[in-house]
Amino acid sequence: MRQLSGVIVDRGSKYAVSGGPARTRDEVDAFLKKLKKDKKFAKATHNTWAVLLEDGVPLKGDDGEAGAGMVILRMLEREDLRAHVIVVTRWFGGKHLGGDRFRHVQECVRAYLDDLGNPQA
Predict the structure, then answer these.
(1) What span, in angstroms and rounded, lies between the C-alpha atoms of 52 and 44?
(2) What are the residue ranges of helices labelled H in the chain?
(3) Which residue in 53, 66, 49 sits closest to 112, CA to CA?
(4) What pLDDT, on the 0 to 100 scale, is given for residue 115?
(5) pLDDT tens for residues 40-76?
(6) Helix, strand, or coil here: 18?
(7) Which helix (H) or strand (E) holds 121?
(8) Residue 3 Ramachandran class (φ > 0 left, ψ -120 to 50 alpha, else beta)
(9) What percent of the chain has pLDDT over 70?
(10) For residues 34 and 76, what is the distance between their CA atoms, to the nearest angstrom?
(11) pLDDT the model gives residue 100
(12) How far apart (Å, rounded) are the C-alpha atoms in residues 79 and 87?
């Protein structure tokens, strides 16, 4: 499991991004379960995720952050990254972010994809 924490802090909300291999829905569920074994992630306001399965079937979960899973999914499709789940975690800071929350999800996924392509990481 690859994790980047403290990717973005905005108006008290904090973001992290995690990811790893997942070829099936069962593997996605296992990944999410493993992530949430860490109480910090279990207590997060949102753990939004998406994956393109090996056969190209898209799956996503918004976890209360309507539309965020689709943002992640579109980025996975653009990269044609399959069998790899990406989870963007948000801890709500008390102030609504409006449309900025989607930009933050994109920035988290971009940071993850950049880190994934970096052999030094």
Answers:
(1) 24
(2) 25-36, 39-42, 68-79, 100-116
(3) 49
(4) 92
(5) 999 999 999 999 999 989 999 999 899 999 999 999 9
(6) strand
(7) none
(8) beta
(9) 97
(10) 22
(11) 82
(12) 16
